[in-house]
Amino acid sequence: MNGKTAFVLLSGVLSGSLCACVQPPDAAAPAAPPPPPAPAPAPAPVAEQPPGNRWVSIQGATCERLLELSPDDRAAASLFYVGYQAARFRSRAINVAAIPNAEEWAESYCAEHPGRPAVEAFRQAYRQTFR
User: Fold this and answer.
1) Contact 84, 119 (CB under 8 A)
2) pLDDT given at position 10
3) In whole angstroms, what separates CA 22 from the centre of its chain?
4) Closest of 68, 75, 129, 73 to residue 97, by C-alpha
5) Terminal CA-to-CA distance of the chain, rounded, Å?
6) Among 1, 43, 56, 129, which has the highest number of CB atoms less than 10 A from its own CB?
7) CB 129 within 8 A of CB 101
8) Which pTM was predicted?
9) What is the pLDDT averaged over residues 1-24?
10) What region does 48 belong to: left with phi over 0, alpha with psi -120 to 50, or beta?
């Protein structure tokens, strides 16, 4: 076979095999059913409105009241009191890894002395944990 004939035959074979692989879509095939509707998203939880102008005595809050708080509120109050004590002791740095120990120490103190001020519990906890 000469080169031209082989090229023509080869290109004809290749184009025929490519056309055989790709078939036009069947017009008679039924369309796929639409997907079922997605369920309506659950309504977002409504956040409680923060109390407006609610004053809390830093020195007067008791251990009993501290222990009555939800875990999130207790954690926030604990962080506040640790920072408050750091300022009172004029600390320039604080060991962040020791904060959970101070919180635990203050909560133990509060469990034993529910009538005492929470600020006293954190003063003692700060002395025990950070000094």
Assistant:
1) yes
2) 45
3) 50
4) 129
5) 98
6) 129
7) yes
8) 0.60
9) 50
10) beta
